[in-house]
UniProtKB/TrEMBL annotation:
Amino acids binding substrate: H401, K470, F471, N472, L473, K474, Y475, E670, D745, P746, L747, Q748
Enzyme class: hydrolase
Transmembrane feature ranges: 6-26
InterPro entries from the UniProt entry: A/AMP_deam_AS (IPR006650), AMPD (IPR006329), Metal_Hydrolase (IPR032466)
Cofactor: record remark: Binds 1 zinc ion per subunit.
GO cellular component: cytosol
Protein name (database record): AMP deaminase
Catalytic residues in the record: H689 (proton acceptor)
Renumbered residue ranges of the record's region Disordered: 46-174
Binding-site list for Zn(2+): H399, H401, H667, D744
Organism: Rubroshorea leprosula
Length: 867
């Protein structure tokens, strides 16, 4: 044992001696390196001072060349990339002011503007601005920066809300470092005293840790971002200038005067809020708006003294029951139909059609020229926008029916799930007996194992083309109306519980996608006044609320069906059932508390049904709704006027009482006569479809000038009325109409879990839309939507309401300023490359040019979008 202990002690002594000697030599080597490093830095500083003294009197050109030569020499080794996880060797301070340099910001020179900044932190430490952590005084070898961040780092970034608060680089704190920043004149170890780079031994190469801790092998320095971002975004772009004819012809003068008249008529009709939302609510906090913690909370409100009564199909509001003064006058039916016929005469004039066709073609060719000259610049500008791409910009499904908001596979899984878990649930009353879910399927001779997507038979196919009646039958799973009543209706025996659960699953899918929103249409048939309370109670009792969803109310134009069934006696009954409860809850919220809470989430009113049905065009003097007692359905424009007039007065009253308002956003122009589009031009804020605008160049040009939103659904049109390759969407987009993509009926049309992305994907593939095009369309969808001002500010920029590039934030929309400047920039016949040096220079806009052309140089153009 003594021998063993002696050997062990000797071994320990030898090992300790070896470690001590090694540590001594390593320490000595480190001190030598530090001394050599300090000498190198001092020599370099001396050399810089000599250059400044020697070339102080040179001309600016020589001085610029010298500085460029000096920068190139420094670029051989000075502009280094640093690891995000290791301290920087060049951050060591020297001298009496070391404390200030260690705690203060690192000033970076010679870096192109527009580059993102990287905050270098130790792993696991927070990056608060108030941190006073001192940089260590030991030298740590730097590692090359990996050009590819780990997947988990990007995922964690996208899943957080921090990316939504990205601001312009010029506003970032100076304590952030550029990715390719130069932290001063200090020389790295692989640079000799003459500034020449020395070869680095393989043993000295160190693998860098990504933010998530993953290891990456050494790769070349990432210079692609430097190339993309070395020029400020949209600083240089190409333009054309087209000089218009100085003296318009008499036909053109007449046409422009008529266009002005049409636009002025629209201004008289369309409801606009007296105070814009961005004037009511100033957004000072750029962070993510907090979710509403209690969306269904009801606070009792007192009844106002307002009195209303229905006269000739339109509700009139008075300050009190004794007062005879009407508060909110609206154009009567005779005036509306007179103006409608006047517009129809204007759009039929030959000189109007010629002029508008010429202007629309010119707009289209301007866009094609813009793409030829600037598409590469737009692409580079998008690459320079950190974190943003098509997948994480907000996009709103501006037209989708709630009963078809899920895809067919989702519905199939839900039906099978309920059949397996709740087979004994009593779900329907038929033929004098109550049936359970299992008994319903047994009566259909079906089991859960029999069900598949093909048997469900809810998907549109060739048989539905030009057959709106067959398309509506696709809402019946397995062709059975009883299954539709059980799973896709809210007014059934189980009070819509299955549909509510299905809706919540769709809400969860939207919340998971984060960047997709929807505006679902709920049906209000007008068969009885209690429908409003039933619908509102279904929403409130099932707590159907999502930050990604708002509601619209759709009114099917089915008066003739209700008349034949004996449900209504005149069209007046239908109007009473639809609008009287809305005025009652506005005057006295306590009368319909659930409806009062529900209306806070309702942003629009829609008119739906088959527009291809033949109808008589209304005359100037039409029967009143009380006189309309025949079995024929009123014309489309008849529905439009009475819905518009009552909604206009309702909005005026709700605005007066500080309540939310409801926009008029009907289906229009999917099929049928052109007067549908003329009626909605006068009255609607936005419309759904609008494909028939291709038949009327005058109306198309008017929709362009007024920038009326079009929620288009090419895949839905392809199943019903218009082949996909003939859809006018790409032409409308080229010409600058305010278009967005929507799904309409995912249950019947789409195949994937994300129908809106599917719509964008197919459009991009068929029509060769670029990433910039897709992001512009997505931005349009947010503009058209009824989401709150706070959410729009967060999604597309705090000044989104301004026209042109002033209202754009590329860090949120991923739409380059170049594109929005084009949409507004006047072009000419000579190609020029313009460098914008003064950001305050006013740029004339294409839309403004068209307005100036119409108004002959004296337009009144607001600086903000329509309220």
């Amino acid at each position: 044992m003594d021998t063993y202990a002696l050997h062990l002690a000797m071994a320990a002594l030898v090992g300790a001696s070896f470690v001590a000697v090694s540590a001594y030599y390593m320490h000595r080597k480190t001190l030598n390196q530090l001394l050599e490093f300090a000498k190198t830095v001092e020599r370099e500083r001396e050399r810089e001072r000599e250059w400044e003294e020697n070339f102080e009197g040179e001309s600016p050109q020589h001085s610029k060349r010298r500085r460029g030569h000096h920068a190139r020499r420094k670029g051989n080794g000075y502009n280094r990339r640093y690891s995000a996880s290791l301290p920087d060797v060049t951050s060591i301070s020297g001298g009496a002011d070391g404390e200030e340099k260690r705690n203060g910001p690192v000033h970076v020179d010679g870096i192109p503007a527009g580059l993102p900044r990287l905050h270098t932190l130790r792993e696991g430490k927070s990056g608060g601005h108030g941190s006073t952590k001192r940089v260590g005084s030991l030298i740590h070898p730097t590692s090359p920066k990996s050009p590819v961040a780990s997947a988990s780092a990007f995922e964690s970034r996208e899943e957080s809300d921090e990316e939504d608060n990205i601001t312009d680089n010029s506003k970032l704190d100076s304590s952030y470092l550029h990715v390719n920043g130069n932290a001063g004149p200090n020389l790295p170890d692989n640079i000799n005293a003459n500034g020449e780079q020395l070869p680095v031994a393989a043993s000295n190469m160190i693998r860098s840790h990504s933010i998530s801790g993953d290891l990456h092998g050494v790769q070349p320095d990432p210079i692609a971002a430097d190339i993309l971002r070395k020029e400020p975004e949209q600083e240089i772009f190409a333009r054309l200038q087209i000089t218009p004819t100085e003296v318009p012809s008499p036909d053109e003068v007449e046409a422009y005067a008529l266009l002005q008249e049409c636009l002025e008529m629209r201004k008289r009709y369309v409801f606009r809020e007296a105070v814009a939302p961005w004037e009511k609510e100033v957004i000072s906090d750029p962070s993510t708006p907090r979710p509403n913690p209690a969306p269904f909370f009801y606070a009792p409100e007192g009844k106002s003294d307002h009195y209303f009564e229905m006269k000739d199909g339109v509700i009139h509001v008075y300050p009190s029951k004794e007062s005879k003064e009407e508060l909110f006058p609206v154009a009567d039916a005779t005036t509306f139909f007179t103006d409608l016929h006047h517009i129809l005469r204007i759009i039929a004039l030959g000189n109007m059609r010629t002029l508008c066709h010429h202007r629309l073609n010119l707009l289209e060719q301007k866009f094609n020229l813009h793409l030829m000259l600037n598409s590469d610049r737009e692409f580079l500008a998008q690459k320079s926008a950190p974190h943003r791409d098509f997948y994480n910009v907000r996009k709103v499904d501006t037209h989708v029916h709630h009963s078809a908001c899920m895809n067919q596979k989702h519905l199939l899984r839900f039906i099978k799930s309920k059949l397996g878990k709740e087979p004994d649930e009593v779900v329907i009353f038929r033929d004098g007996t109550y049936l359970t879910l299992k008994e319903v399927f047994e009566s259909l001779d079906l089991t859960g194992n029999d069900l598949n997507v093909d048997l469900l038979d809810v998907h549109a196919d060739k048989s539905t083309f030009h057959r709106f009646d067959k398309f509506n039958l696709k809402y019946n799973p397995c062709g059975q109306s009883r299954l539709r009543e059980i799973f896709l209706k809210q007014d059934n025996l189980i009070q819509g519980r299955f549909l509510a659960e299905l809706t919540k699953q769709v809400f969860n899918d939207l919340a998971g996608s984060k960047y997709q929103m929807a505006e679902y249409r709920l049906s209000m048939y007008g068969r009885k006044q209690s429908e409003w309370d039933q619908l509102a109670s279904w929403i409130v009792n099932n707590e159907l609320y999502s930050e990604n969803v708002v509601w619209l109310i759709q009114i099917p134009r089915l008066y003739n069906v209700y008349k034949e069934m004996g449900i209504v006696t005149s069209f007046q009954n239908m109007l009473d059932n639809i609008f009287i409860p809305l005025f009652e809850v506005t005057v006295d919220p306590d009368s319909h508390p659930h409806l009062h809470v529900f209306l806070k989430q309702v942003v629009g009113l829609d008119l739906v049904d088959d527009e291809s049905k033949p109808e008589r065009r209304p005359t100037k003097h039409m029967p009143t709704p009380a006189q309309w007692t025949n079995v024929f359905n009123p014309a489309y424009s008849y529905y439009v006027y009475y819905c518009y007039a009552n909604l206009y007065i309702l909005n005026k009253l709700r605005e007066l009482k500080g309540m939310t308002t409801i926009k008029f956003r009907p289906h229009s122009g999917e099929a049928g006569d052109i007067d549908h589009l003329a009626a909605t031009f006068l009255t609607a804020h936005n419309i759904a479809h609008g494909i028939n605008l291709k038949k009327s160049p005058v109306l198309q040009y008017l929709y362009y000038l007024a920038q009326i939103g079009l929620a288009m659904s090419p895949l839905s049109n392809n199943s019903l009325f218009l082949d996909y390759h003939r859809n006018p969407f790409p032409v409308f987009f080229l010409r600058g109409l305010n278009v967005s993509l929507s799904t309409d009926d995912p249950l019947q049309i789409h195949l994937t879990k994300e129908p809106l992305v599917e719509e964008y994907s197919i459009a991009a593939s068929v029509w060769k839309l670029s990433a910039c095009d897709l992001c512009e369309i997505a931005r349009n969808s947010v503009y058209q939507s009824g989401f709150s001002h706070a959410l729009k500010s967060h999604w597309i920029g705090k000044e989104y309401y301004k026209r042109g590039p002033d209202g754009n934030d590329i860090h949120k929309t991923n739409v380059p300023h170049i594109r929005l400047e084009f949409r507004d920039t006047v072009w000419g016949c000579l190609q020029t490359v313009v460098t914008i040096k003064d950001p305050t220079v006013t740029i004339l806009q294409i839309w403004r040019e068209e307005m100036q052309q119409v108004y002959r140089g004296e337009p009144i153009i607001p600086k903000e979008v329509d309220k």
